[in-house]
Each structure stands twice: as C-alpha cells, then as structure tokens.
Amino acid sequence: MVHIHPQTKSAAVNPLKSSQPLGAALAFLGVDGAIPLFHGSQGCTSFALVLCVRHFKETVPLQTTAMDELATVMGGEGHLEEAILNLKKRANPKLIGICTTALAETRSEDFERQIANIKMMRAEELAGTEIALANTPDFDGALEEGWAKAVTAMIQRITRRGQQARHSRKATIIERITKPGEQPHKRKKVAILPGWHLTVADIEHLREMVESFGLKPVILPDVSGSLDGTVPDRWMPTTYGGTSVEDIHELGTAVQCIGVGEHMRRPAELLQKLTGVPYAVFQSLTGLKNVDRFVSLLSEISGVVAPPKIHRCRAQLQDALLDGHFHFAGKKIAIAAEPDQLYQLATFFTGLGAEIISAVTTTGASKILEKVPAESIQIGDLGDFEDLASDADLVVTHSHGRQVAERLGIPLLRVGFPVFDRLGSQHKLTVLYQGTRDLIFEAANVFQANQRMPSPEIVDGLRKRRNAG
Amino acid sequence: MSSLAAKIQDAFVEPACEKNRRKDASTRKKGCSKPPTPGAAAGGCAFDGAKVVLQPITDVAHLVHAPLACEGNSWDNRGTASSGPMLWRTSFTTDLTELDIMMGQSERRLFHALRQIKEAYAPPAIFVYATCVTALIGDDIQAVCKRAAEKFGLPVVPINAPGFVGSKNLGNKLAGEALLDHVIGTVEPDDAGPYDINILGEFNLSGEFWLVKPLLDRLGIRVRACIPGDARYRDVASSHRARAAMLVCSTALINLARKMEERWQIPFFEGSFYGITATSEALRRIAELLVKKGADTEILDRTDKLIAEEEAIAWKRLEAYRPRLKGKRVLINSGGVKSWSLVHALMEIGMEIVGTSVKKSTVEDKERIKQVLKEEHHMFESIAPRDLYAMLSEHKADIMLSGGRTQFIALKAKTPWLDINQERHHPYAGYDGMVELVRQIDLAIHNPVWSDVREPAPWEDDPAVEEQLSSPHTHIEL
Question: Across the interface, which of B35, B72, B407 has its CB nearest the CB of A17?
Fold first, then answer.
C-alpha cells in the first residue's frame, strides 16, 4: 500500500507544477479555430504564453482580459466582455475557451452568469462563436485538473444532449451490415478523450490504430492537428487544426467513449450522463497488457479482428521487452510528474524490473496515486525530488529537472510539460505497442550511455560488502 | 496600497525621462504605457518587470508570495549569467493554496517560508515579491519582511509590484525603487576608489557583459556594481559609493539612475554597448565622468588609444562579412536594443535597413536613424503580427532581428531570424559582440535550409501526375 505524504513546507522550492489555467488552455488549443482567454492580469497570460512557446516552438494564440487595479477591486465583468468582443472582432474564433486565474477567482464572481449575460446581450455579435468556461484558479490543482476541467466544460457547453439514446438502435443496424473500408462515412464513431500527457505523436498513433479497425475516431482535444509543428501558408490568429466544434457538438453519436488517464473519467462520465455514450477509462495506454485490453475493446466494438500490422507491432514490443529488460532490472528510478503520468511511467519502469525509489507528484487528490507501484509518494516540488532522488540511476521529469540532474550527477529523461531544452518532445511516442517499445529503447539507451567501464574500484566486491553490511 | 500608488505616480512623472520632458503636467500623470486592451494585449505585468530586474542578483533568494502561476510558470527562463553564486536560479514561492487564501493564513505561511529559506540556504538577503492575489487579500508583506529581518538577522526586502498595477516597464521601475528604499546605501565599502563606476540596466545576457568588462579592466576602471547582471547583494548595497554610472537600458531603471545622482551625487549618462560606435562612445563618456569627479585626466588619452585599437580590429573583422552581406535587407523589430548603433554598424558593412522599431529609442537616436534611412516610414513603433507576417512572407526582408515573441512569425513566413532579446544564446555586447552578431546574421541568412523549406514539393500541383492519379487504373511510371 502506497503511503502518500502531504506537503508540509511553507515555501515551494523549484516548483514541479505548471498552473491549472495553463492546463485548461492546452486543452482549448486542441480545438480548431479556438483561442484560450485567461481571465486575470496580463502577466498570468504572458507567463503561460512564453512557457507554451518554449515548449511547442510555435506561435500560440492565448489572450488575456488584462484585469487592472480597478477591475481587481470593482470586478472584472467589463474586462471579460470587452475581451470576448475584441477577440470576436479581430479573429472570429469558433471557440473562446475562458480559463479563470487565481486573481479572478479570489474575487469569486459568478462567471457562469456573467458569460450567460454577455452572450444574451451580445447574441448577434457573438453568433457563430462558442464560449466555454473552465474555473481554474492557480491556487488549486495543476495541469491535469485544468485540462480535465476544460474538456468537461466543452462537453457541458457544446455537446448535443440525448444523442446516443435516440440514435443507437438505428446506428447499430446500419453498421452491422457495413464492412470496414467499404463505406467510410458509415463507420462507427468512437469518442476518445486523451489526457494532457499524450503527445502529438501519441494522438496520431491512437487515431491510426482506431481507424485500422474500421472505426471513426473523434478525439477531444486533438492537439495533433494544431500543435504538431507544421507551416501554414497564411497568418492564423486562432488555432489551425484540432477537433472541430461540430464534432464536439455531435460527440453523443459515438458508440463508445474511451478516456485515457484517470483525470479523463470526469468528462467521460459527463458525456455518458448527457448522451448515454458508455465509457471506458484506460489509466495508462503504455505497457503490453494495457494495450492488449485496448485492442480487445476496439476489436469488440468493431467486430473486426486486429489487422496484421497490430500483430507485428505487438511482436516488436515483445522483442523490445526481451532485449530491454537486462538494462532495467534492478535499476533505481526517481519520477516527478503529475498523477496520471506518474502512474504511466512508474508502471512502465516496474514492468521491466526496475524499482521506483522516489515518486513526487503535484496534488494528492487523484485516485490513481493509490495504484502507483512505489512505497511512498511525496506531494511536492523539485526541491523534495532532489532530496529523495540522490540514489537513483535515472531521474524522470520535465525540463525544470535539469538543475536537479546536474547537481546530483544523474541522467535525466525528459517527459511531460514543459520540455523547453530539447526538440521534438511532441513527436515522441509513449503509448500503445510502438510507444512502449520506443520508451524502452530511449530509457535503455540512457542507461547504456551512462554505463561506466569496469575498473578495480567499481568492481571491488569486498568494499561493496562492507558498505552493505 | 497608498504608498504604492505614490510610487507609481512618482515613476510616471520621472523628470529624467525625456519622453516626460516633452509632456505637460497632466499627460505626464497618466504614465507612458496605455492601459492594455482586454483581448488584444501583449507583454508582461508589473511583477514580471520587477522580477526581471532583480532576479539576476545572483546570491539572493527570490521568494514569490503568490499562488503557483506567478513563479511556477516563469522560473528559470532568462539567459542571464552568473560568475559565481547560483542561488538565483533556485525558485522559491509560497505556492498558496485555497485554504491559505480563504483562511487568511498567507502571511503566516510567508513568515515560515522565510525561516525555511534562511535555515536551508543562509543567503545574504531574501527578496519577497508581492503579487496580485496577495495584494488583493491585503497581506502586509512590508510588516512580515520587517519582522523576519529582525528575527532571522538578515535583510528581507519587500518588492511591492503586484501584476495588476501596470506594465512590465512600470515593474522595472518599482524594482529600482525597492533597491533605493531598502538596499542601496546599507553597506559601506572599505575599498572605494576614484575609478569605481556602476552600470545600471545591464543584464549580462549570455554573459555578454564579460565582453565589455575586460575593456574596463584595461583602463583601470572598476565596476563597483553592475545592476542587476551578475550582481551580488553586497555590491548593490554598497553601490552608492561609485563615482559615476552608465545607464544601459534607460527605460527600465532611469529613476534609479536619477535618484542615485540626487542622493549620492553619482553622475550618469545613457549609453549602450550594442554596436561599435556606441561602445566607443560609452567608454569615452565613462572616462569623462570619472575625470569630472576627480580622476586623473590621463585616463582620457588611454581610453582614446584603446578605442582606436579596438575599433580597428573590429572593423577589420567585420569587413570580412561585407561581400556576403552587402545589399541584404534587415528588419529590426525589437525594443530591447538601442537600434541606432545597430543600424549604423550594419549599414557600415553594406546592409540595407528596411525597417526598425524605435519604441524604446531616445529622441536623439530617432533623429540619427531618420538621417541615415532612406525613407522615414522605415521607422515604426510596433507592427501587428498579421502585418509582420505579410511583410515577411512577401520577402521584403532577408532577415528579421527580434525577440522570441515574434520568432515564429518569421519562421512560419520562412524568413531567417535572429534573436537579439533576452533569450538569445550569443553575447552581442562590445566590439567582439558586434562581430559575433554579424557572424550570426551571416550564418542565419546563408543557412542551406532556406532553399529547402521555400520550395514546394515537386509532386504537388503537377498536372501530369494529378491526371494520372485521378484515373486509378492508369499505371504510373515515375
């Protein structure tokens, strides 16, 4: 049973967290034609924007209501309205995703009502633009919660009610007589709600896998279209690519919803409540057995056996497990990550015979923490991580861990957000058979690169025995 | 809050600011920066500005009193360099939770945080930054700092620049005020000398001040304090004993320079280390000010001799780039540098300036730029991203020099780009820095990737192939 230690320090040292509104913004960025709007002071947006640009190496549309002293004291509704109207006028987005910040939330205004008012009073001007609200004060949660709240808000606001109940019988009959590949427009639809920790490559790969069963995946949010590092041929003030608002609207016509990561349970539950679409949550899609269950589910939904490509990928993973396990066995791993990513990585490493000697995470609220294969988990920061990781063979966290790794002299595997000092983090695969295979190779290569040639001192058995005794 | 309001007014009416000098009393009071437009704003807040100015002080623990985002989303993101202590790169924040805020426990948390830092790191001083939320709930950080300083026996400096009070630039100035109120003049040096100077507003980005310092060393000039780049707390605290000062980034710390002149009779001038003529001019003015304050006049000759030597070397090295860069069109889109000096050096080796921002340039600089540029419309205050993209994608410039915020506009328009702002990786100050800048421009413009990325795929829009593809039964031979 894992023991979870709460944070007891007064000053966080080298924060592990990125803020909750930033997590919500990332989710809104996975929608086509969207602009996330931070409700707070200018700096809240500026810091988040710079961090996103450093991570994605892209222009990122992110705006602010620019609350000033007056708005802070008297209330920010005027600024909210002005910002929404300005965005509409300048960029005509399909979606404005509002992420409240600590400043706005400390005043605790009724934003839901304010937005309803603005939409009513300005109905004509705002026609064609959806507005979703995520309540994401910085003093609570982190990326994971922010992302989940934004997805929940979009489903709540945009998705049409009662869809599946109405359509299910007819849909099933049509699809039973349809073979995959023949009539793609009649493919069964699967709604996929990926967690924030899935990369662009992960999402592309997920899509291909689902499609290979003759199913039509609708992915929300879909950063693979919007933050995948392409060169558009014109200036775009909003996101270009991602889930279409229309697809969010029709999410209820899916036959099945699949959430990836425990934090996607809430939006999946809401979708079921509103539309009747049944859901399954995969707490991790990394590791052979997890992927096996996923493939079985796709096979079951589609009524199609897994195509040969998938057999081949699985065999490659088996081989990677065989080749790789030598390098992992007995290794001591330290991980600092948000709860779902901590679970994903900890189970991955222990699945190859390594041991998690220290686990640090951002918040204690997630149920997944109880299942993390570690003796204890510290809710904390990279300062705690540095204290706990000194005996590790490998430290695993985001780019801010570089100082820890440097001081401890331990190699760093960069994961999650932000990764600002390496290129291509969004094109790294971490899920399904192929992603697991790639992760094995990446970590094993780090181990091998840091292996020291044997010398009398290193090998010295007597000394080791003394030290152990 | 009332004292903060007074400070802000004070910053707005700063008499040494030449923009202010041209305004009447009522427009002065409004301040320079227009209030940001909701939904169409860019740039940081006052807290951001204050932290930018103070954080490069390397041995101080910088504690941000706020919920997570203020520090958690922004730490370790600037390229200033330290020659010793690394504590400035360790991030400290009270990371307030909902409970702290709702139950009014944030002041107590701050106090405990100060104890924790004192015990674990024993820094020479701790700076405490107020932010929006802690200002809104009325935390009295001034009082907490005072009590902690007494209790723990070290300077604890309140930095009162919450984000909502205004722009980044205002925050820069409020940071200067905090240094004046709490730090400068608190330590008496035992080694003050006639050749001591302060450099204000130099951030030592990519260690570039180390390209300039050896020149000063050769002249026997000692940098008492470079604020903030690579500074130590003691240097700043004893900087009031310098004989003269150079103000590098004038819009950030002009109030600091003027008030140090007022209080401690340290004369200052505004200058820049970007560009050859600017560097020479700066060295000359430093020597002149020192002489005025009683240094031996022979330093003037030595300075002239050094300048002549260094300029000759630099121009000779730059000459090598002339054939490669002659006629290339440069767009300078940054408020961060004194563009005049840059414009001058680039034109000197035959490059053409197709535009330069003059947002932070002095009136004098603007005049000089106006004279050398063929058309006046090449000067602009700022360009909207959309227009910038259009301009670049029509290939109206061969390279853009700017900061990170517009980086991807240039790159997406498939235009060479060079970072000349705070996140850059190369030192550009002084004579050697200018040569490095030109070298980087050359490398950027002549990189082989441009021909790759600008060409469309040969198989796209090829009617022959398209025709064949549209009839699925044709056998295609390529």
Answer: B72
